[in-house]
Amino acid sequence: MKISWTWFHKLGSPKWFYAISGRMLPWLAGAAVILLLVGITWGLAFAPQDYQQGNSFRIIYIHVPAAMLAQSCYVLLAVAGVVGLVWKMKLADVALQCAAPIGAWMTAVALVTGAIWGKPTWGSWWVWDARLTSMLILLFLYFGIIALGQAISNRDSAAKACAVLAIVGVVNIPIIKYSVEWWNTLHQGATFTLTEKPAMPAEMWLPLLCTALGFYCFFGAVLLLRMRLEVLKREARASWVRDEVLNSLGRRAAQ
């Protein structure tokens, strides 16, 4: 059976991406708002207390989704790096550059909320735990990619350098994930996984699932918005951009 790769090559077209992302944005943004409102409200106000940690565990509804998204975002950077180096798709560099700041923010949120959670649980804001240390390294990797992209003036050279760093740095992701199993750490294991039954009751993990999905929808919406702006910036001289601007002005005038 012959496989058509037309869809894959379309991903490299700025014009096609701009059109399809414009249709996806409202759905992602709407889903993010609904899921985050439901998940956070349910988790903070209605979920039962933890039998050991009391109400302090409720920060899990921010900390866990942020940590999950921080790691997933870096995997996306590595995939974008491979696509950019192998298939020379410039849109892959756009995705990499636009996703890196979001990933850095999510990593920072995970570290800060983890410190807040760690104070009543461990009695300390920070310990040089394997999970915490590897997450801190992840933050530095994000900073390195952002700085590298801004330091090199030539866009093609910057794209290659950032792609290589993203690919090399992805080795830190399995270290983060399995650090609690490979070393004796204070950090607890996975809260829930797709392959095992959650250890928490449904009224505790369901709002966490809603919040996690909301974080991913939020990430998708913000990433598409940032990429659309970057595409317009890079393709400013293209005829389709001028047509898009004129059509947009025409729609506003008609309203």
CATH architecture classification: Up-down Bundle
Alpha plus pi helix count: 9
Q: Can you tell me the number of structural domains?
A: 1
Q: Using the coordinates above, name the CATH class.
A: Mainly Alpha
Gross morphology: globular
Taking the sheet with the most strands, its summary is: none
Question: Which stretches of 5+ consecutive residues score pLDDT under 50?
Answer: none
How much helix, percentage-wise, in residues?
A: over 70%
Q: What is the H-and-E element order?
A: HHHHHHHHH
Strand content: under 5%
Rounded mean pLDDT score: 89
- Overall structural class, as computed from helix and strand content, comes to mainly alpha
Classify the fold: give the CATH topology. Answer: Four Helix Bundle (Hemerythrin (Met), subunit A)
DSSP strand count: 0
What Rg, in angstroms, do the CA atoms define?
21 Å
Q: Which oligomerization state do the chains in this entry correspond to?
A: single chain
Distance linking N and C termini? 49 Å
How would you describe this structure to a colleague?
There is one protein chain. The chain has 255 residues and is mostly helical. It has a single domain (22-49, 56-189, 213-246), classed as Four Helix Bundle (Hemerythrin (Met), subunit A), CATH 1.20.120. The protein contains 9 helices and no strands. The chain has helices at 6-10, 14-46, 60-87, 90-122, 130-151, 155-169, 172-182, 202-234, 239-254. α3 runs antiparallel to α4. The chain starts with 5 loop residues before the first helix and ends with a helix.
